[in-house]
Design goal:
alpha/beta, single chain, binds 6-O-phosphono-beta-D-galactopyranose, 40% helix
């Protein structure tokens, strides 16, 4: 049987500005939320993204290696504070030049750039006004987005507004493991609302420019599921689905709020005065063209009966027994399923969530084009004496995810591209540099030398084989 993968399918890998660029105080860049955090006392490990893998100076080498690995597209994000370094609103021309040079290099090599405007790194002067808790942030984001469209529209045709709104505000305002380290449901709702409003404004602004291209948002969670079939658990499933997915998918794809979202939030006495008159029009006018879907793991849930709200995040990998999980008192809790393999950080390895999510999206939202914007496997790694890593575990696991993606495409899912996280080893937010995801090893002890891993060659061959069968 021939697979139904389109001939112009994009096969690539992904990065984000703060995690790979380095050059944190070079080229006129201003400080952002992560620069300030990693240089503060709150950063217990002292690990920073100051240099990281130094993509800023080595992008030509990284793009060449990517291309040689059979990939035809590269996902990256723009550093907001490299483009607008301070509150004056003056554009940093050196920042624009850097990104134009990167895109030129992409075009020269036949690599399609796939660009996210915001991946977790708010400029510090906007943190000072309260970040996304402040409604003005949405207009700041719109301004920034317009500057980017203007500066790069001739080079970039595929845009994403915001990376993982749900996970970003979950970590920053509930689990309190990313800046600004808050655990407060009301503040979480306020920030989350402004994030999706900002995205809709930027989508609308892009459409108004009339520039060629498409724009979307990057959703992080896979579809929620429950093994139970009784009304109580199905109601819990719906709440989990609202919490993880629907507030982003319905507003971005359909331009409306989920019909039951308000009532569910009112159960928790959430003040919804953050929603202003006229906002609905913004959502209606800001519908996305394409969806970015990150795929890491499933959300397997049941009803929560003990009323306890808890967010478990494993920061320490093998030094900790903590299993990743969430419970929201009275709503739902994630299930610890002992039959499912977990990674070193306690996260479920459940490749079928790729298939379930893609088929779910098709059933619920029709044929919106979907890009798998991230799919990866984090692990500790030991290279041989030549620096070569035989990452068999990554190959085994990502192979299963990919096969499920192909199966979903064969069954009609409208998938246009796939980005493996990550192009090379890079900074892993609170997990630093020991947790690695890259197709290419970065030797932090030896001048940031790049050494393709076994998975790099495997991915190249997988792409070739599957395209031959399509
Ligand atoms: C996603 C983020 C990425 C990346 C990845 C792996 O949520 O979009 O930026 O970091 O997860 O996460 P981590 O590095 O925390 O393991």
């Amino acid at each position: 049987m021939k697979h139904k993968i389109c001939k112009d399918f994009l096969w690539g890998s992904a990065t984000a500005a703060y995690q790979c660029e380095g050059a944190w105080n070079e080229g006129g860049k201003g400080n952002n939320q992560w620069d300030v955090f990693v240089h503060s006392k709150a950063n217990e490990t002292g690990i920073t993204g100051d240099i990281s893998c130094d993509f800023y100076h080595r992008y030509k080498e990284d793009l060449r290696i990517l291309k040689e690995g059979g990939q035809n597209t590269f996902r990256m994000s723009l550093s907001w504070s490299r483009i607008l370094p301070d509150a004056s609103g003056k554009v940093n021309e050196a920042g624009i030049k850097f990104y134009r040079d990167v895109f030129d290099e992409c075009r020269k090599l036949g690599i399609e750039p796939f660009v996210t405007l915001f991946h977790y790194d708010i400029p510090e002067y906007l943190v000072q006004i309260g970040g996304f808790e402040n409604r003005n942030m949405v207009f700041e984001f719109e301004k920034y987005a317009k500057i980017c469209f203007e500066a790069f529209h001739d080079q970039v045709k595929l845009w994403m507004t915001i990376n993982e709104p749900a996970y970003y505000t979950y970590c920053g305002y509930l689990a309190a493991n990313y800046p600004p380290f808050v655990a407060d449901f009301q503040r979480y709702v306020n920030a989350s609302y402004h994030v999706i409003l900002a995205s809709a404004l930027a989508v609308n602004a892009f459409h108004e420019t009339g520039y060629e291209g498409q724009i979307g948002i990057v959703q992080d969670s896979c579809y929620a599921q429950t093994p139970f079939n009784d009304p109580e658990n199905l109601a819990a499933l719906r709440k989990a689905d609202l919490f993880y997915n629907r507030w982003i998918l319905d507003t971005s794809i359909l331009g409306v709020f989920p019909h039951d979202l308000k009532d569910v939030l009112l159960e928790k006495n959430i003040d919804l005065s953050v929603v202003k008159e006229g906002d609905l029009d913004i959502f209606r006018q800001g519908k996305i063209d394409i969806l970015g879907q990150n795929v890491y793991t499933r959300k397997n849930v049941q009803v929560n009966k003990d009323g306890i709200t808890l967010f478990n995040v494993n920061r320490k990998g093998k030094e900790s027994n903590i299993k990743e999980g969430t419970s929201i008192g009275g709503w739902f809790e994630t299930i610890v399923d002992p039959t499912v393999e977990r990674n070193t950080w306690g996260r479920e390895i459940y490749p079928k969530c790729m298939y379930d999510t893609l088929i779910g999206l098709k059933n619920d939202y029709g044929d919106i084009p979907v890009y798998i914007t991230e799919n990866g496997h984090g692990s500790y790694e030991t290279p041989d004496e030549n620096g070569y890593v035989e990452d068999e575990e990554r190959i085994r696991i990502l192979g299963m995810f990919l096969d499920y993606m192909v199966q979903a495409i064969d069954e009609g899912a409208n998938v246009k591209g796939y980005y493996l996280w990550s192009t090379m080893d890079l900074y892993s937010w609170i997990n630093g540099y020991e947790k690695r995801y890259g197709l290419v090893r970065v030797d932090y002890e030896d001048n940031l030398k790049r050494i393709p891993k076994k998975s790099y060659y495997w991915y190249r061959d997988y792409i070739k084989k599957i395209m031959n069968e399509s």
